UniProtKB/TrEMBL annotation:
Primary localization: nucleus
Localization (cell): Nucleus
Record-given protein name: DNA replication complex GINS protein SLD5
Family affiliation: Belongs to the GINS4/SLD5 family.
InterPro entries referenced in this protein's UniProt entry, alphabetically: GINS_A (IPR021151), GINS_bundle-like_dom_sf (IPR036224), GINS_Sld5 (IPR008591), SLD5_C (IPR031633), Sld5_GINS_A (IPR038749)
UniProt function note: The GINS complex plays an essential role in the initiation of DNA replication.
Record organism: Anopheles arabiensis (Mosquito)
Region (Disordered): 1-22
Length: 231
């Protein structure tokens, strides 16, 4: 994809990715910062969207990426407001803005779908993670809790309260959890070298650009670290 319409000014990003957890860690560990162009920011967000789309479990929220892309969209909208709407260049730029908005909306929508499907499981797992490893934004966590409570209250009014007492407290039995054994296609963004699979029983040499079929649970750390991308 071409990103020539996206402004080329540099934006600060945290080293080792831009997830919400790492933004928190920056204040604790005083991590080194690097420069990343607006084009690279958009490419990173698109990669996060594709990873989220194909990953069975919820990945860390890319808070910094989303925020920077939204800021750039505001600047682009301001520039378009003063442009000649009959100009072909205006139409091209308007299409680019809509395309970027689609990427952001699709990324957020994909995460919301997982929250609705796995809300109780995600809430429980998230509560056990350390502060610098959280995967939900504050808004997503609130949504998940409110959604789960609403569903449980509705289910209780319609079904649970009419059931025998010994079947009224089996919320965990109704819980849906993501299948981490799902197989996914992944492409290496860099040389990983020998990597252990299936609890150390197998190993594979992962080279940059190579495409492999893995169990998701075996490679999730590499996806979060940005060494692999789902396709």
């Amino acid at each position: 994809m071409e990103y020539s319409d996206f402004e080329s000014e540099n934006t600060d990003l945290l080293r080792n990715g831009t997830s919400n957890a790492e933004v928190d860690a920056e204040f604790e560990d005083d991590e080194e910062e690097i420069q990343m162009s607006s084009q690279e920011v958009l490419e990173a967000l698109q990669r996060a969207w594709i990873n989220e789309k194909f990953a069975p479990d919820l990945l860390p929220y890319e808070d910094a990426l989303v925020e920077m892309v939204m800021i750039q969209l505001v600047h682009m909208e301001e520039n378009l407001a003063t442009a000649n709407k009959n100009d072909l260049l205006y139409i091209v730029h308007r299409m680019e803005v809509e395309r970027i908005r689609f990427i952001v909306a699709s990324y957020l929508r994909c995460r919301l779908q997982k929250l609705e499907t796995y809300a109780p499981h995600i809430i429980e797992v998230e509560s056990g993670r350390p502060r610098n490893s959280k995967r939900l934004s504050a808004a997503e966590h609130k949504f998940a809790v409110d959604f789960h409570e609403s569903v449980e209250n509705h289910f209780n009014e319609l079904v649970t309260r009419h059931m025998p007492q010994n079947h009224q407290d089996d919320e965990r039995a109704r819980r849906v959890i993501p299948n981490l054994d799902t197989h996914v296609f992944a492409r290496a963004r860099q040389d990983v070298g020998e990597y252990s699979l299936a609890g150390g029983e197998l190993s594979v040499n992962i080279r940059a650009g190579a495409v492999h079929l893995f169990r998701y649970c075996d490679i999730e750390p590499l996806i979060i670290e940005g060494q692999l991308e789902l396709i």
